[in-house]
Amino acid sequence: MIFLVHRSEPILPPSSSLRLMLTAAVAKNVTAWVNERAYPGGLMHFFGLFGSEYIVPTDHEGLVEVLSTRSYDFEKSRAFRRYSVRFFGDSLVTQEQEVHNRNRKTFMPVFNQTNINAVRPPLTSKSRQFNDYISSLLKMSGESQRSSEGRGTAVVPVTDVVFRATMDTGSILALGIDLETIKGRNTHILQAFKTLFASNRQKKIRFILHNLLPGWLDQLVPSTEAKDMDRARILLVESVVNMMQGKLAKNERTGDHLTYLSNLEQSGPFNHDEYIGQLRTIIAAGFESSGGSLSFVIYCLAANRDAQQSVREELRNAKHEYERLPVLNAVVMESLRLFPSFGLLLRRAIRDTTIKGRLIPRGTHIGICPKAINCSRELWGDDAEEFNFERWIDRSDPHNPTQVPTGGAPSTACMLSFGYGTRSCVGRHLAMAQIKRQIALITERFYVETEDDKVPHPSGLFASTPPLDFRLRFTEVE
Question: What burial class does residue 339 get, using C-beta atoms within 10 Å of its C-beta: 0-12 exposed, 13-18 middle, 19+ buried?
């Protein structure tokens, strides 16, 4: 809902174009503006629909204020929360202030590094199931699909396969139950998530109308998409309730790691209805956010053969301690930098506040654009929009390369793929652990190639994911 008029100072007159709202790649536009010229005050200022003001921090100091030190001065829009609660449930994604702070604490024991270390075996097992699924597709391709060296090869709908594996992982962490969609089970749950999260023009128009219209009027506008999403929501609520009740009735221990449900049990009596939304959100985050991120990392692996070969060579001498491997880490981090999970996040000031000493009146919209920050030349250098995994590696000792936590940027706040501060992704450690394992195991077993020079256009209703029909070629290493 923003327009191609921008300036750091002063206030500009409003502009209007519904067509632009529907067709513009907003994050791409903001990224272009950030790299078009310098913003000495670290704040970009422009107008949107009906003259609403937007402020976008363009440096790490402003980002730290919005996302950390003054984070509770800003909230998601009511329209976004109303839409999300209707279709996805009330959860950490929609909650604000003390409710958000309190419920965030219920996630921390499950998603801290200690528990993620304990969950490594099922993560590795799920990654191997992904590879086995790819191998089965190669076998199904038959003798007509053989590489010049005689190895099995096939073009794979990679996003669809990834969604299955990452959603299974989400259900393991949420409930201690493996949905096994990667094995073809619980396809009704998989399809329900696809119905909710797959993006199309009609859904985008519906979301815009939802933001523009009063709630009572929005409900009166007929929409086939909304009816389908309501049915999918009901199915998922019923499925999660049944799985939760079954798990609680069995009262069985789930491996050596905590799940979100077992953590709630250990904390004492809890209102089951209150946490249904949280459980659904964990599974949904596995499906869309983690799934989209892993899909883009696999794409970057395929599009950058030198990086793929470097990972393969590093793994030959590794002891499978994936978290410590600098090249593997660098390829993953660089891919996530170029393809963050969210293109643009909007907040609204709920009180008069300041950013970098500038007065921000109550009601002002704040845009956090991970794509623009991650690709800012001011923060990352002239090659900010290019894939360069070496920026994450310190080779000052040629025999002992190490990881560079900031990638050469001035601050960790310049890498917004998982957010920052009190609103950062609680599942970051889990996502990184799964992505690194999956990339390592894929690289050991397959060569991955693009079919053409096209870069997958970020899709997804909320998170940025490749299209469901996005395909890559997998060929057996041996």
Answer: buried
The structural domains of the chain, ordered by start, are: 78-128+156-342+417-476 (1.10.630.10)
Q: How far apart are CA 343 and CA 366, in angstroms?
A: 14
Among residues 82, 99, 103, 12, which one has the least CA distance to residue 53? 12
CA distance 173 to 262: 10
Encode pLDDT of 311-330 as tens digits.
999 999 887 689 899 999 99
Cα separation of the two ends of the chain: 50
Token pair belonging to 435: 């992505």
Rounded CA-CA distance 278/282 in Å is 6
Distance CA 219, CA 125 (A): 44
DSSP β-bridge partners for residue 355: 358
Model confidence pTM above 0.85? yes
CA distance linking residue 257 with residue 119, whole number of Å: 6
* Backbone torsions φ then ψ of 106, nearest 5 degrees: -70, -20
Highest mean pLDDT among 186-195, 212-221, 451-460: 186-195
| Structural contact between residues 73 and 349, judged by C-beta atoms closer than 8 angstroms | yes
Give dist(CA 160, CA 434) in Å, integer: 17
d(CA 233, CA 88): 7
Rg value, the chain, Cα: 22
**Which pair of tokens denotes residue 66?**
């919005």
Average pLDDT over residues 432-447: 97
Burial of 361 (0-12, 13-18, 19+ CB in 10 A): exposed
Tell me if 425 is assigned to a ligand binding site. Answer: yes
